[in-house]
Amino acid sequence: MNPIVVVGVLAALVATGATLVLVRPLLGGRMVWPALGAALATAILTVGLGRALNVASLEFLIGISVFALPVLVLLEAAAIASGADRFGRWLLMLAWGLVVFPVSTIVPLLVTSGCFAPDCGFEDFGAGLPLIASSAAFVVPAWLPAGVHERLQLDRPSGRRAIAAVVLLWAAMIVWLAHLEGTIDEYTPRIALAALVAPLASAAGWLVVDRLRGVGRPVARSLLLGLAVGMVVALPGAVSVGMPWSAIVGLLAGALAGLVFSVSERDVAGLAARWGMTVLVAISVGFLAPAVSGDTVGLIFVARASVLAAPALVLAAVAAFSIAVSVPVWLVLRRHATRDRIPAGILVDE
Question: For the chain, what is the domain count?
């Protein structure tokens, strides 16, 4: 096996460990194994279909599929926070892993494979579309059981453990993103720089919004939230969007994400839906960035608004498809959810 692939797998495992550190204190020990099983099934199906249809290389398909594991951990956490039983957790993860993720990976590539003009293609180096946009949209329909409200303080990560986990997740994401290049070449430093700068700029943008809105959140927490959401911004345009555009895109995404998160803070749908909407806004900015400021092909360089049409349409289609698949899943979860399955300390009665 290509050593670069091994590096990507190890980075994804480290990212999964960091994600578990972030969610386990809230959700207890009722996770991990279902997510691992769902991740294995997701990888087998996506890699198998992708190679059968010849939409991408084996190394790329393996690389993006292994990073579905931390995403599935977060989806399982969302199911647990909604009071889902074991069946509901499996249903939620497999609906995304066996339906939404492979479709979001393969279909856009198939549809645009015969077109080489900038006006009908899209750039998504880090698979932000199937990994982030689809999963964020998937939890937008989430809600809490009737008569229950979220404790507001739980959306404020704090403490050395949370900070260390976010930093570790960030480092793993940088390594994983760089490994998708398939080799160490002149583009590797550019990819790493984009993955380093965009989250920092996103943290700054989130902090500015919090200060202007007078949210009252401590500076360290605003920066940590902005950094966490900013990790997804650089994925699509890590190769084509260079400096200073990486910083500008990160700043814009962080500001918009912070605004969405704060505005929806009292949404009874709860933490999962709020983070879904927040991350969806951030990845939308990142996904459209190559069409705006990408080297030689972006709107700024070619002066043709038509280059925005294909990525905007693909993004909207994936988000709509993900929501359409998730709605019946969340309806099933809602029917079987009970308050006694909600982790202690997360929710309180009305």
Answer: 1
